[in-house]
């Protein structure tokens, strides 16, 4: 079951990268906030249908949970807006790895201190190694983008001059 959850999480991550690439293109054409609005509107509609047809009854409703738990819904908005904006400027790979770096770092803090009602999982050297490796990956991917961006920019400039 653990392996299946890891596979599903990897698939979810792949879908986020696809979403970021598509939303980056859409945002450059119609605007960052309109792209984010579409994401949340369609997402809300699909989620409402999933709730209606598949969600089992729960003893607790959204109105009964501690109010701070409802704040989690607000954190998706900055993520989508930032990704639509960032993908246009730094590319899907750099934006995605940067997001994963932020997720990994914050999730390890949450685990270590048991924040937000989660069980504590102590920080370790292996976890530090994972953060460092991802930071190095981010550096190399970003560096690769920068070295490729200069010739591509010159080619676009040359094509404009030739027209």
What layout of secondary structure does this protein have?
Blueprint: H1 2-30, H2 32-54, H3 76-90, H4 92-113, H5 125-162
Helix pairs in contact: 1-2, 1-3, 2-3, 3-4, 4-5
Average pLDDT over all residues = 90
Q: Count of DSSP helices? A: 5
Residue fraction in strands: under 5%
What is the count of β-strands?
A: 0
Order of helices and strands: HHHHH
Mass-distribution shape: globular
Proportion of helical residues:
over 70%
Largest sheet composition: none
- Stretches where pLDDT is under 50 for at least 5 consecutive residues are none
- Distance between the amino and carboxyl termini: 59 Å
Structural class by SSE content? mainly alpha
| Estimated radius of gyration | 20 Å
Describe the fold and architecture.
This protein is mainly α. The model has no long low-confidence stretch (mean pLDDT 90). The longest helix has 38 residues. The chain has five helices and no strands. Helix content is 78%, strand content 0%. The protein starts with a helix and ends with a helix.
Characteristic terms for this protein:
single chain; 163 residues; mainly alpha; DMT family transporter
Sum this structure up briefly:
The chain crosses the membrane at residues 36-56, 68-87, 93-116, 128-145. The chain is mostly helical.
């Amino acid at each position: 079951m653990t392996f299946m959850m890891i596979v599903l999480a990897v698939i979810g991550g792949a879908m986020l990268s696809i979403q970021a690439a598509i939303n980056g293109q859409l945002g450059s054409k119609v605007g960052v906030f309109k792209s984010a609005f579409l994401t949340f509107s369609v997402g809300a509609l699909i989620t409402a249908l999933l709730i209606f047809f598949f969600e089992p009854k729960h003893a607790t409703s959204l109105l009964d949970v501690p109010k701070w738990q409802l704040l989690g819904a607000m954190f998706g908005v900055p993520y989508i807006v930032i990704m639509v904006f960032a993908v246009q400027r730094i590319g899907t790979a750099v934006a995605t790895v940067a997001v994963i770096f932020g997720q990994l770092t914050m999730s390890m803090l949450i685990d270590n201190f048991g924040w937000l009602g989660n069980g504590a999982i102590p920080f370790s050297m292996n976890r530090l190694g994972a953060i460092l490796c991802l930071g190095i990956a981010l550096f190399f991917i970003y560096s690769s983008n920068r070295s490729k961006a200069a010739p591509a920019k010159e080619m676009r400039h040359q094509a404009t001059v030739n027209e």
